[in-house]
Amino acid sequence: KLRPGEYYIDEATGYLYLYPGDNHATASYSMPKTKNIITLDGTSYVKFEGITFEASNKAIIYGDKLDNVTIDGCTIRNGIAQGIEIFGTNITIQNSFVTSVGKSGIEIAGGDVENLIQANNLVYNNLITDWSNVRGVMESAIKFDDSCGLLISNNEMHSSVDWGIGGDGAYVTI
Q: Which of 23, 39, 171, 173 has the most Cβ atoms closer than 10 angstroms to its Cβ?
């Protein structure tokens, strides 16, 4: 059952069910049709710097099999799923602002846990607010699963009911 200010998207039908909050007379609503704003697959040596990405119904930035990708000083906001969902090696996400996303602010994985091959990934000096704002979703601001070789440092997280950092792996330093 929805409460005021909450919504539900039925992915099978594409319908949005919205229970407006107290200020519905002056509020505006929008629903993005774009799946991912940026999709990277097998990409290397790319840097996004000082760019604002917003409004997607999947991860705002999604990448798989990446190497040497940097997101620096970007704003990532207003997504139904993850702000950033990225998998690979030598990934740096730093000095960025992630807000108003339905699932994790940043989801990152890389390396080989079984063979202890480190990914050399870094999540540093980011501000993450208002994540996991889809009802029934329990995600962390920074999520890492099956990661080896990850440093998470100097990040600020607030304004969510869910945990700040969560995941599993080896050679993960927080």
A: 171
Q: Is 162 exposed, middle or buried (0-12, 13-18, 19+ CB in 10 A)?
A: middle
What's the pLDDT at 138? 84
Q: What does the pLDDT read at residue 28? A: 62
* pLDDT, position 3: 74
Q: How much of the chain is in helix, strand and coil states, percent to nearest 5?
A: 0, 55, 45
Q: Tokens representing 78?
A: 């207003």
Residues, the chain? 174
Half-sphere exposure of 36 (CA within 13 A, CB side): 14
Work out the burial of residue 33: count CB atoms within 10 Å of its CB; fewer than 13 is exposed, 13-18 middle, 19 or more buried.
exposed
Tell me, what's the pLDDT at 14?
67
Which residue ranges of the chain lie beneath pLDDT 70?
Answer: 1, 5, 7, 14, 16, 23-34, 135
Please name the helix (run of DSSP H) or strand (run of DSSP E) that holds residue 145, with its range, or none: strand 142-153
CB-CB contact of 54 with 39 (8 Å): no
